[in-house]
Each structure stands twice: as C-alpha cells, then as structure tokens.
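Posting this for the archive.
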Amino acid sequence: MDAEIKRINRELQCEGTIINYYKDTVVLPDGKTELYDFIGHNGAAAAVGVLEDGKLVMVRQYRNALDRFTLEIPAGGLNPNEATIDAAARELEEETGYQCRKIEKLLTIRTTVAFCNEKIDIYLATNLQKTIQHLDEDEFVNVETHTIEELENMIYDGTIEDAKTIAAILAYKNKFS
C-alpha cells in the first residue's frame, strides 16, 4: 500500500518512569484525521545466558502487570547513552550473578508494534563466570537453569508467555541446537 499516512501532532498525556503515553493525530489517505494511542519506550536489551552444560540461565520475578511471577530471560531498560550490548551484559550479571566473556547479537524484536515503539535487542551470552547478583532495590529475582527442551515445553504448555523470552528461546534453539 503506497497511500500516504502522516502524523501531524503528538501530545504527551502522561509521563511515566519507563514509558510515556501520547495521543497522536494522524491524517489518513482519505484525508480524515484519527487519534492514535502511542507509547514511547527508551528500549531494552536481554541476554540468553548459556552455561557450559547447555542449560539456559533464567530469572523468575514478579510482574505487576500480570500480578504474578514469570519465568524470563534476563532483561532490562537501557541507561542513557548505553549500548544495547552493554545493557544485555549488565542485566545478565545484575539479575543472575553471571558475567559473560562472550556476547553476540541473536535478534531484535519489537514487542507491540500496534501502539508502542519498544525495541529489544537480544544477545547470546556464553563463557559465563559466576559472580554475584546486583539487584536493584525493587527487584526480587530467583535464578533458575533449564534445558532448551524444558523451556520449549514450557512455551507450548503456556508456562512461559513472555514474548521476548519465547522469541529468544526459539531463535537460540533454531540457530544453535
């Protein structure tokens, strides 16, 4: 479709700690205007940490939006001017207590393209060395390790629902196992 769609206004509705909520005014190809919701996000990075025995390092943490604990790959938001590769390595060590000696890009995802610009760069982290967790004051994270087969089963039985985690596990399995 080559029709032109143009945003003519973006108005901040609410400023949050990790997102900003806007109302966008958009001109459609037929000349009509529509209001769209837009959530601005500063981006994030995540890491698939793989131990020497092939198990993946996962974190179990409480997620307020779901009001329950979830099993995920380590991830977090970017600090100002931080490269995603550095953020992924930092989050891996902070949340799991594992430092990686090798890290490479696995894939990039956009979490909810209909209304949010969040972009998560996901990295494969290997040659892990045990250090200690450096959790933020509001983080309570349990570290678990699982085989790729266990994690894949958890995806298909509905235990793992987090999009970045599903994408990362399946991409890792497809590319490296």
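The first strand starts at residue 6 and ends at 15. The chain is about 20% helix and 45% strand.
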